[in-house]
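Q: Could you write out the predicted structure for this multi-component system? I'm mainly interested in how the pieces pack against one another.
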Amino acid sequence: MAVDRRKVAVFGAAFVLRLLLICLFPSLPDLLTGRVEVSTPVNSFKRLQEGLYLYTRDVSPYDGGVFHQAPLLLPLFSLLPDVTTNPVPTAIFYFLVDLLNAHALATISASGQSVQSRLHSAMRKHIRWDGTSVAAWFLFNPFTIATCLARSTSVLTTSGILFAVSSAVSGNSLNAMLALGFASYLSLYPALLFVPLALLCYDQRSQNSAQAPNTALFILQHGAILSGGIAGLLGLSVLITGNFWEFMTATYGFHLLVPDLTPNVGLWWYFFIEMFDSFREFFLGVFWLHLASYVGGLTARLRRQPLFIITSLLGVFAVFKPYPSISDASLFFALLPLYRHLFPLMRYTFFAISALLYSSLLGPAFYHLWIYAGSGNANFFYAITLVWSLGLSILLADVIFAALRDEWEQDHPERKGEEVKQV
Amino acid sequence: MTVSSLFSLLLALAVTLWSSPVSASSDYHEQLFLQPLPQSSLLASFNFRGNTSQQSFDNQHFQYIPRALGQILQHAHTKELHLRFSTGRWDAESWGPRPWNGSKEGGTGVELWAWIDAVDDEEAFAKWITLTQSLSGLFCASLNFVDSTRTTRPVVSFDPTGDHSNVDGLHLLHGTLPGEVVCTENLTPFLKLLPCKGKAGISSLFDGHKLFDAAWQSMSVDLRPICPSDGDCIVQIEQTVDMVLDIERSKRSRSNPIPRPVPNDQLLCDTSKPYNSHDTCYPLEKASGNAWSLQEVFGRTLNGACPLAQSDDSSEQSVCLRVPHERQVFHSEGAVEHKNEDGFTRCFSLSSSQPFDLSIPEQAVQTEVPLEEPVLHAERTIVGHGQERGGMRIIFVNPSKTAGVDFILFESLPWFLRPYIHTLQATITGADGVPREVPASELVTGTFYRPAIDRERGTQLELALSVPAASTVTLTYDFEKAILRYTEYPPDANRGFNVAPAVIRILNSPDSAPIYIRSTSLLLQLPTPDFSMPYNVIILTSTVIALAFGTVFNILVRRVVSVDEAAALGAQSLKGRILGKLVAIRDRLKRKETKVE
C-alpha cells in the first residue's frame, strides 16, 4: 500500500505541476506550441486546429499544405471544446494522456523485463529503480512537460508505443499489436518496432506456456494482427475523409518524402534545404534505408533483450527520423531508467549529458539569433542540431555497449567487473 | 505563309471591302482626360477603344484589334482578356476615388485574368499557360512565370464584362506577378497595339521617362465580346493608361533634374501650426494652383488627332480637362474648345494636321473641382516580427455616415505563406472610437477558401464582408513562413518575397458597375539558409550520420572480450604478428649495437 501511495503522490504532483504551469503562465502553451523544437509539421497542435477548423466546415483538411496528421484525430479533437475560448479541457486531456503513459511505464518497469527476460538475466539486478521512480523520471522530465503543454500530438504516438510495450510485457500480445498499429497509424515510423515487439511477445508467450510456439507462425500471426489493426484504422479514416489517396499522400507521403523543411532538432531539414535537386530522391532513399537498417542490426545482435532493442530503436528514431522533436527524445529518456543497472557500465555519460544540456540550452538562443535577432544565420541552429544529434547518438552507442558488456558478463560470470575490449 | 493562306487572307480582305456595311460596327475612339489633383498632382487618363465585328474577327480580319493579340486569343480559346501593368500607389485619401472606379486598374506589377473556353479545368489550364507564354512574348513581361502556384480561379470576385453565349463553358483564371517591374519595355509593345502607334493622336504624348516617373500609373488591355440586343456581336478592345504625375517633378528639365529647395521668401507657411516660426514651416499648397502645359508635363506636344479615330462625327472631343470654368486655359490653334454645362469640364476637338498644346497659367480661383469621398478605404499590412511567423492585418474604413458597405475581399497568397484561417479575428471600431472584438462570422457573410499545397498552388481566399456605416473593421489572421530549398530562393533572397495585393470588389455601388480597390503589394521576409555552404552541410550531416552509424555498428559487430584476452588474441592476428616481427628486428639491432661496443 505504501508504494501505491507514493505512486499517487507522484502522479498527483505531476498533474498539479502541469496545472500550476498553465494557470500561472497562461501564454505558455501557445509559446511552446510555436517552438520548432517541440512542434513539427507532423505533430503541431496549431496545424491540428487548422485541420479541425476546415474539417468542421466540411472542407477537406488534406487538400492543402498545412495539415498532415492522421484523420482519426479530427473527430477525436472535435469532441473537445474550442481551445481558444476554453483551453483547460484540452490541457487536462493531455495531462491525463501523460499520466496514462507514466502508468504504462510503471507497468513495464514492474514486470522486470528489462533485467530478467527469457534469454537474459542481468548481472546487476539489484541496481534498479522501481516503477514509481521511472514514472516520476518521465513525468518530471522538462522535455515531457514541454511536449505535454505544447499539446503536441506525438504524445498519442508515445502512448501507442508505451501501451504496446506494456501489453507485450504483461503477455497480452493482441493488445500489443493493436497499440503498435495505432502508433504506426498516427506516425508511420513505429511500424519499424514490429520485429522487436513481436520477439518480446514471443518470449513472453514461450516463458508462460509449456512449449514455445512456432516462431515463423507466431511472427506471421502478429504481423497479420498489426496489419489488420492498421487496415481497420485506415478504413475508419476513409469513412471520415472520403478520399483514400488524398489523405494517404498528405500524411504518410508527407512523412516519407519530407516536403516541408521547417527547422526542427533533426538532421533532415537543413540537409534537404541545401541538397542539390538532382540528388534529393537518392538521399531521401539513403536516409530512410539508414533509419531502417538499425532494426536488423540491433535485432540480430541483441536478440536476447527485445525490450532493449525497442529502447535503443526509440533512441535511433529520436535522432534520425524525418521530423523529430524533443518528445521523441523524452520517450527515449523515459525508457532509459529501466536500464539503471547498465549505468555503471557506461563510459561517456558525462560527455553525452553535457552535449545534450549544451544543445538544449543553446538551441533556443541560437534559433532566436537566426530568426528574430538576425545576428546569426541558419548555421547557428544547424550546428546545435548537430551537437544534439551527436549527444544522443553517443548516449545511444554507450547504452548499447553497456548492454553488450552486460550480456558478456552474463556469459562469463567469473569475469564480472573486468576491463573489456571489443575485437 | 503558304500560298493558300495568303489567298484566303486576300479573299477575306476583298470580301470585307466589298461589303462595307458589315464593317460599320468597327470603329475606333480615343480620349485623353486630364484633371489636376491636390498636392500638385495631375491625373492623365488615356483611353483607346476599337471595335471589330465578331464575324470578321472570327475570319481573322482583325481591323482595329491588333493581329498579334487577336491570333493569340484565338489560339488560346480566350473569350475575354484583362491585362494590367501597374506601378505606384493611388493615394485615395488625397486624390479621392480611383479612375474608372478601379475597374481598369491592376495590383502592383502585372495582373492578368481571362475567361477561357475549355471542356474541363485541365484543358483550361493548358490553354492558360499557352496564353501567358504568348502574352509574355508580346508584352516583354515575365508572364511566363505565371505557373500553377500563381494562378487562382476566383469564384465571386470577378464577373465577365462581355456578353458570352456559353458562360458555363468558360473558365476564369487569374494570375498575378507582384514583383514585376513595369517599365518602358512594356510600353513599346503596348503602343504598337494602337492603330496610330504613338505617332499621332493622344498616344503621341507617351514618353517612357515621364510615364514611369509617375507617382502611380496603370496600363490596361481589355478585350471582350459585346452583343447588343439588336444587331451583330462585336469584339471590343479597350486600352487605357492612367497616371498621376507630380507637376513640379515633371516640369524639371531633363538635363538638370536635381530638385532645389524653394527659396525662403517664396515659401507659404501654415501659420496656424504651433511650431511655426522663422525657422520652422509647414508648407501650404499654393492657392493659385500650378501652372503647366502639356509640353512641360509630358515633354512633348500632341501630334494632332489620330486620323483613324472616328471622324465622321465632327464633335469627337479627344482631349478633356477638368478645371473650373473660370480658370484660364490656352490652347493651340486649330483646336475647338467646348465647355460642358457642369461648370468644370471642357473638351477640345483636335485637327489632324496641327500639333496641339494646352497651357494653364497660375491663377487664383474661387471654385474648386469637388472630389468625391471613396466608398471604402482599405489597407493591408504584415504585422509581427521575425522570420518564422507573422500576421496579416487588413483595415477597412467606411467613411459613409449612413450606409454600410458590402464587399468581397480576394487574396491570393503564395504557398510559402501558410495562413491559419482558424485564427481569423475581427475588431470593429464604431463612431465612439472604442475597438470591440467580434467573432469573424459576424462580419464575414461568406467564405471561399482553397488552401495552398506546397510547390503546387497558392492560397485562394475570398471573403464576403460587410462594414457598417461610420466604422472601421480590422481583420487579422496568423501565418507561418515556410523555409524553402536553397535553389528556390531568388538571388536577392534577403530582400523578401512579393505578396500580391488583395482585390476588393464593392458590391453595393449605386450604378451596378462594380468598384474595385486594390491594396498595395507586400514584402514577405522568409528565413534563409546559408547559401554558401551546401557542400559543407552535406559533409557535416553525413559525418554525424556516419559517426553514429559507425559507432553503433562497430559495437554491434565486434566481439566483447576482456583486456587480457584481447592481448592474447592480438598476438595471433596479422597485425600482432607484424608487430612481433618488428620487435624482434629491433631487438636484434640493439644486440648488434651492444656487440660493437
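A: Regarding packing and overall arrangement: The first strand of chain B starts at residue 28 and ends at 37.
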